[in-house]
Automatic annotation (TrEMBL):
Pfam family, one: GcpE
Manner of cofactor binding, per the entry note: Binds 1 [4Fe-4S] cluster.
Entry keywords, A to Z: 4Fe-4S, Iron, Iron-sulfur, Isoprene biosynthesis, Metal-binding, Oxidoreductase
Gene3D superfamilies xrefs: Dihydropteroate synthase-like, Sulfite Reductase Hemoprotein, domain 1
Matches recorded under PANTHER family: 4-HYDROXY-3-METHYLBUT-2-EN-1-YL DIPHOSPHATE SYNTHASE, 4-HYDROXY-3-METHYLBUT-2-EN-1-YL DIPHOSPHATE SYNTHASE (FERREDOXIN), CHLOROPLASTIC
Keyword 4Fe-4S: yes
Iron in keyword set: yes
Source organism of the structure: Tsuneonella aeria
Name of the protein described by the UniProt record: 4-hydroxy-3-methylbut-2-en-1-yl diphosphate synthase (flavodoxin)
List of residues binding [4Fe-4S] cluster: 273, 276, 308, 315
């Protein structure tokens, strides 16, 4: 169910596009969702297992830490196994950047000003160019250069932006332009102000994040407020939700933020009520079960789950499948916004899951048919 609603439109900031492996970042490309592994990189099996879970959750790009020679020694096994581009986070060690670039990194997370001499920067740029690597400049309020802290007295938007511009210049001086930039802070106000200022200054893609955001609930709220403000303003080409939680949770939260703003669609968007004494079934437990049971659905679609008839019919008219609680354990099911049939409480969960799976298959088949029709039309021409 959809309609044209201009008041929902977000005019995205114009940025030039770079490639991170096979993923376009910036320009008119979809906003990509990133996360980072937290396993010891030397433990290849554990790292690849975690990458798989993140890929299944929908991650577009995954970052892997490479702080030691032992970690980069295993890096090629990881990049070969991954189905998405892998970013090598090399901290302050320029040699790790050279090694990771040679072993399949799609991008290097590095601040050029922090790795030493201009000769070292030149070496990293040469390795990046030779291997088709992008670079992500990652300015962080918690690790600003000492001279900037002395100049400004504390982390502030001007300091973060000046740091970013200094790092950018080092790459541009070596004729390297395949970079994206982040100016992260754990303070929402500081991060948003810095990103807004930087967005007016440069045309490169911006990687958004509220760093060290916290645990699953608190970090989700902070990230949604900070990144949500920026994304609503059209700023941001790729995001990472930084949580003290499993990396696949970061991916799920990232997609939920983008879905709430209509910037990405993936999986089932559930509209549900907080429940009250009018509910005809246990809404909270039902939604929890549906979220678990429908995680495997990647097809964009909508499902409303409302406990009673107060708002249920209105919400159901706006979703692909709707469920509204009724009396005596008998509930109304809506298909494409129209009342269709009833279902009993004991059959409700399995029935809704089967309806969603069938609808997803129908949508996928329609998309495949459209693709075949396009192919036939092109061939006829």
């Amino acid at each position: 169910m959809s309609s044209v609603r201009p008041w929902r439109d977000i005019a995205r900031r114009t940025s030039r596009q770079i490639m991170v492996g096979n993923v376009p970042v910036g320009g008119d490309a979809p906003i990509s969702v990133q996360t980072m592994t937290n396993t010891p990189t030397e433990d290849v099996g554990a790292t690849i297992d975690q990458i798989r879970r993140c890929e299944d959750a929908g991650a577009d790009i995954i970052r892997v830490s490479c702080p030691t020679p032992e970690s980069t020694a295993q890096f090629e096994r990881i990049t070969r196994a991954a189905r998405v581009p892998i970013v090598a986070d090399i901290h302050f060690h320029y040699k790790r950047a050279l090694e990771a670039a040679d072993k399949g990194a799609a991008c290097l997370r590095i601040n050029p000003g922090n790795i030493g001499s201009s000769e070292r920067v030149a070496e990293v740029v040469r390795a990046a160019k030779a291997n088709g690597c992008a670079i992500r400049i990652g300015v962080n309020a918690g690790s600003l250069e000492r001279d900037l802290l002395e100049k400004y007295g504390e982390p502030c938007p001007d300091a973060l932006v000046e740091s970013a511009l200094d790092h950018i210049k080092l790459l541009q001086d070596h004729d390297f332009h395949e970079f994206k930039v982040a100016v992260k802070a754990s303070d929402v106000f500081l991060a948003v102000a810095a990103y807004m200022q930087l967005a007016e200054t440069v045309d490169c893609p911006l990687h958004l994040g509220i760093t060290e955001a916290g645990g699953l609930i608190g970090g989700t709220v902070k990230s949604a407020i900070g990144m949500g403000n920026l994304l609503w303003a059209g700023i941001g080409d790729t995001i990472r939700v930084s949580l003290s939680a499993e990396p696949e949770q970061e991916v799920k939260v990232g997609f939920e933020i983008l879905k709430a703003l209509g910037l990405r669609t993936r999986g089932v968007r559930i509209v549900s009520c907080p429940s009250c004494s009018r509910q005809g079934f246990d809404v909270i437990r039902t939604v929890e079960a549906l979220e678990r049971r429908l995680e495997h659905i990647k097809t964009p679609m909508s499902l409303s789950v409302l406990g009673c008839v107060v708002n249920g019919p209105g919400e159901a008219r706006e979703t692909d499948i709707g469920l509204t609680g009724g009396g005596a354990g008998k509930h109304m099911v809506y298909l494409s916004g129209v009342t269709d049939h009833h279902v009993q409480s004991e059959d409700m969960l399995e029935h809704i899951v089967s309806l969603v799976e069938a609808k997803a298959a129908e949508i996928e088949a329609g998309m495949s048919d459209a693709g075949r029709a396009d192919t036939i039309a092109v061939a006829a021409e």
